[in-house]
Amino acid sequence: MADLRRFNSTSQLIRFVLKRSDTGQGLTGLANNSNGLLISTIVDVEAVPISYSGSNIEGITTLGTFETPTANKCRFKELDANNHKGVYEFQFPNTRFNAANATHLIVSVTGAANMLDTDYEIQFDGPIGGGNEIFENTLTLKNMIRCMFSALCGKSAGGNTSTLTFRDYNDSKNRISATVDSSGNRTAITVDGS
């Protein structure tokens, strides 16, 4: 099961297990400067991964506390070799969590001696782009939800007239204005989801 994170989230601490290639048990003793260590990230809308190796992998000063990596770098540190064998913490730039239209991020760790190559998937939860992408015509997800909430919970007027309106929950504006015929069929609709 993928790790769920909010799209466009910041200061994310990621922890997962790196295993030994010979026994499958947790691999201990890796550090940010371990020979051959390669950490690569890619989101589903990218053709080329962003990879970190050598001096582009920084240490973590305090586990559990996000420290923004230097430009073009990530952070890495072993959690606890005695009590949590093979668990490592990763810290990536916030930009890895906000690529336009991305739905998930894959972190691949390879190259260190005695380490089983590992892929870790982070799935973005919630509206991509915070609900600001266009879903239909010119309406974003936020606009559509506002209109639906108005139709379900807002005041309405004109049920027996040629114009039917639904107000926003605060009763400050018409969210939906519909022209209706004598049978009550909507013949024209104007929405305001702003």
Explain what you see:
The chain is about 5% helix and about 40% strand. By secondary structure, the chain is mainly beta. It has two domains: about 5-130, Immunoglobulin-like (Sandwich); about 130-190, no CATH class. The strands form four sheets. A five-stranded mixed sheet has the order 1-9-8-3-4, with no helix packed on it. A four-stranded mixed sheet has the order 2-7-6-5, with no helix packed on it. Strand 8 (about 105-110) and strand 9 form a beta hairpin. The longest helix is centred in the C-terminal third of the chain and has 13 residues, at about 140-155. The mean pLDDT is about 90.
List key phrases describing it.
five-stranded mixed sheet; 194 residues; Immunoglobulin-like; 1 helix; four-stranded mixed sheet; rod-shaped
Topology diagram in text:
Elements: E1 3-6, E2 13-17, E3 38-43, E4 50-53, E5 57-58, E6 74-80, E7 84-91, E8 104-110, E9 118-125, E10 134-136, E11 139-140, H1 141-153, E12 156-157, E13 163-167, E14 174-180, E15 186-191
Parallel strand pairs: 1-9, 5-6
Antiparallel strand pairs: 2-7, 3-4, 3-8, 6-7, 8-9, 10-11, 12-13, 13-14, 14-15
